Amino acid sequence: MLKKGVLRKKKDFSAIYNRGNSFGGKYVVLFCKKNNLDYNRIGFLASKK
């Protein structure tokens, strides 16, 4: 995976939470939002619990 494809900043994650779509299963929730780039960006978040 290219470094430019990784979400690292809080503002990037916040934009997805606030304006994106979510899809949930029993163990995972996926948040996504369209971008105007030629590649997808991805980020992972884990809770402390």
Automatic annotation (TrEMBL):
Pfam families in the cross-refs: Ribonuclease_P
Presence of keyword Transferase: no
Keyword terms, alphabetized: Endonuclease, Hydrolase, Nuclease, RNA-binding, tRNA processing
One GO term of the biological process aspect: tRNA processing
InterPro entries from the UniProt entry: Ribosomal_Su5_D2-typ_SF, Ribsml_uS5_D2-typ_fold_subgr, RNase_P
Signal sequence coordinates: none
Domain of life where this protein originates: Bacteria
One annotated GO molecular function: tRNA binding
Stated name of the protein: Uncharacterized protein
Protein species of origin: Aminipila terrae
